[in-house]
Amino acid sequence: MQNYIQTQISDIGGRQENQDFASFRGTKFGFLSVVCDGMGGAKGGSYASQLASQIVIDDITNSASDDPRNALQNAVQKANFEVFRVSINDSKYKGMGTTITVLLLTQEKAYICHVGDSRVYQFRKGQKIYRTYDHSVVFRMLKEGILKTEEQARNHSRSNELSRVLGIQPFVDIEIAEVTYQKDDIFLLCTDGICGELTDEQIENIVRQNTIVDNLANTLIKTVNQTCFAKGGGHDNLTVSLVQAKTNSNIITSQAKNSNSLIYISLMIVFFIIFVGALLSNEYLRVRPLQMQNETFKKTLDSLGVKPTEKETKPPITPLDSLQKIIKIKSDSLQQVTTDLKDVIKLVKEKKWAEYNKKLQEIQPTKPKASASEATEGQKN
Known about the structure:
Elements: E1 4-11, E2 20-26, E3 31-39, H1 44-61, H2 68-89, E4 97-105, E5 110-115, E6 119-124, E7 127-131, H3 137-143, H4 150-154, E8 175-179, E9 186-190, H5 192-195, H6 200-209, H7 213-230, E10 238-245, H8 250-304, H9 323-326, H10 334-349, H11 353-363, H12 372-380
Antiparallel strand pairs: 1-10, 2-3, 3-4, 4-5, 5-8, 6-7, 6-9, 9-10
Helix pairs in contact: 1-2, 8-10, 10-11
């Protein structure tokens, strides 16, 4: 069963040609979605976006690597070089390039890659929890404090200038992020035709009002077209790719299970310390007067020159302040820890002190043996 729902729409907007391109495919790593926004004279822009998208899709699908991040890095770098190679060898494609955003949704996590100003958003219950940041001149100015707000960046005269793009140089600096996800999280990949016209708050409001991804995609495109055509048109191409997770990522699930286990173990230890502490306190109160009487009796015998017959002495009881040092949760399973605690409590209740001390020694964490190299190093010192 698929662990995602996806949809893609690309619209020409107010232009004569659509230079955006979107594609997707299921791979051995998980679901793969790619969105590109091409640029360049004649047919260069549309060819660059299509070429880059297809190379990334094919290369990840056929990757020999078992590492999703490595496969993604290699695929995007290969796409960059191929766009660059074509642009310098074919005059009609000279100067072409493209942005790229990639989402690789694996069972463990989501890998997000981008170059340029096309974006990836992650929404949870209608709230934006993640967003890529544009590789552009104005966003660099924001980072340096020259501009103060994204609204200033949006309206700046250099808002269309990119600091990174595929195909301009033989190698490109690729940004890759890794995020966990929860059931019903929505990932939005879009070109700047969408995020250049709508603020993050406007996009967030539309996401909140459209929980079905098909409706959400159509609403985003429709909203931008209506707004821009009302102003006279001529606006950029519009492309959105939406992916909704239908399960939690494995890392989230694993963290939740570990958290529940630790809570249970912690409660068991607290109960153990309180219970055993009470029993040991009672034992101390009962034994102490007898010890005082025995000491007085011994002094009396000594004064008379009589030596008492030696008897087997009771083994010392491990004091309460050492219990927390002995009971340490390391690599033991939850079941084993629980069993050990129950055994110790039983021995205390039955006042089997010799067995109690022996059991505590058994479950006390031991120091790992020094490796051969460590032993040798110790001898040298």
